[in-house]
Write a structure and sequence with these properties.
With 383 residues, the chain is an alpha+beta fold. The chain is built from 14 helices and 11 strands. Helix 4 (98-117) crosses helix 14 and helix 7 packs across helix 8 (189-195). The two termini are 20 Å apart.
């Protein structure tokens, strides 16, 4: 058994232990990557000195070239962030409901059964992407037929293909949905935004677009990375399926360990309003820092044997969904998907055979990090 998510070593181990920071260039801008668990959590809460009020610049790489509006609520600071977040919170809490849980479990069971009936299946585009897209229709309370359009956008709404063209296509789609909702409002996400108010006034179209843009861009590749990373791991560790099968209550802790070990999103940025010293690196006013969740999740002062996958790891204070006020809106959605996937695999699948794998590797100026797969073709073997 290879009890690791990847054979690639933790690229942040040495700088995390030595300096706590790694200077890395992104798009011509050198950012200090904050690597230690305690400091990532501290900085994530310190919005006065490390701000998210920075349109286009919270993602790394920044996204000025692929969208024209601020993403909401992520690119704002408290207290405004909380006011914006409250507007959409009811939709992002839907995964807690029995109705949506049943919908997601039924969908995953169907797709697992289809995979079992086939000689092989490519996981990223033909299994994970349909799961992500169909479950998003449940979250947003829109017709499930919309999933076909979203699947056609590929694995990333900006980066899978020509970013500027894809960004424009997403914006055109969102305008169409908001036009429809304003003309004929219903109980869906788009209609709720057309009826919502902020600080006593209706939302502007740009604000509606900001919510919509984040909803489609923010949780797509991260869910795909989680699903493909889990299936890749289970292919090499059939005993992990048996471990969860023996007691399905183990699935909850196991899913959290997968989120930690995979860390589907490496990092996000914060902007320093004034000149700031970060471990001896001077960040100029308006300069950015990276909150490196991938490094924090492997901090050996917090996680014993962090490169090992321990499905019973407790406590597990991972930061895969961020920390503080900006804790990921989609966290409950991602958790429901992964728990439903593990439940279905335990019930139906004896083992998984990898037929072809292309690991996804982030190649940056100062590090290379393996994050799940660009392509993963497998055969599910029935119990």
């Amino acid at each position: 058994m290879k009890n690791k998510i990847t054979e690639q070593p933790d690229p942040f181990k040495e700088p995390r232990q030595k300096d706590g920071v790694l200077a890395c260039e992104f798009q011509g801008e050198t950012l200090p990557m904050i690597l230690r668990h305690e400091e990532v959590r501290r900085v994530a809460k310190d919005w006065q000195h490390f701000s998210s009020d920075a349109p286009f610049r919270v993602p790394i790489p920044s996204e000025e070239d692929v969208r024209s509006m601020r993403q909401l609520p992520v690119e704002t600071d408290p207290p405004v962030h909380g006011e914006y977040r409250e507007i959409v919170e009811p939709f992002f809490q839907r995964p807690r409901s029995a109705e949506m849980t049943a919908q997601v479990e039924k969908l995953v069971d169907r797709l697992v059964e289809e995979a079992l009936a086939a000689d092989s299946i490519e996981i990223v585009r033909h299994f994970a992407l349909p799961i992500q897209s169909h479950t998003l229709t449940y979250l947003l309370n829109v017709p499930e037929t919309e999933a076909a359009t979203w699947i056609s956008w590929g694995t990333h709404v900006f980066r899978d293909g020509v970013g500027q063209q894809k960004g424009a296509a997403l914006e055109a789609y969102l305008h169409q949905q908001f036009d429809r909702a304003q003309a004929n409002p219903g109980d869906d996400f788009f209609s709720a935004l057309t009826k919502a108010t902020f600080q006593g006034r209706p939302l502007t179209r740009e604000e509606m677009m900001g919510f919509g843009n984040l909803t489609f861009a923010g949780g797509r590749d991260t869910v795909l990375n989680s699903i493909s990373g889990i299936i890749g791991y289970l292919a090499g560790n059939a005993e992990a399926l048996e471990y969860m099968r023996q007691d399905p209550k183990r699935i909850v802790a196991a899913s959290e360990e997968f989120f930690r070990a995979i860390t589907p999103l490496t990092h996000l940025a914060r902007v320093c309003p004034v000149e700031t010293d970060v471990h001896g690196m001077t960040v100029p006013p308006g300069g950015r820092v990276s909150l490196c969740f991938a490094a924090a999740n492997y901090d050996e002062t917090v996680f014993d044997a962090p490169e090992e996958v321990r499905l019973d790891r407790k406590p597990n204070p991972h930061v895969s969904f961020g920390f503080g006020a900006h804790l990921c809106l989609g966290a409950q959605h991602a958790r429901l998907i992964v728990r439903s996937l593990l439940k279905s695999l335990c019930e139906r699948v004896k083992s998984i055979t990898v037929l072809h794998a292309e690991e996804h590797v982030e190649n940056e100026a100062r590090y290379q990090r393996a994050v799940a797969y660009d392509a993963l073709t497998v055969k599910f073997n029935r119990r």
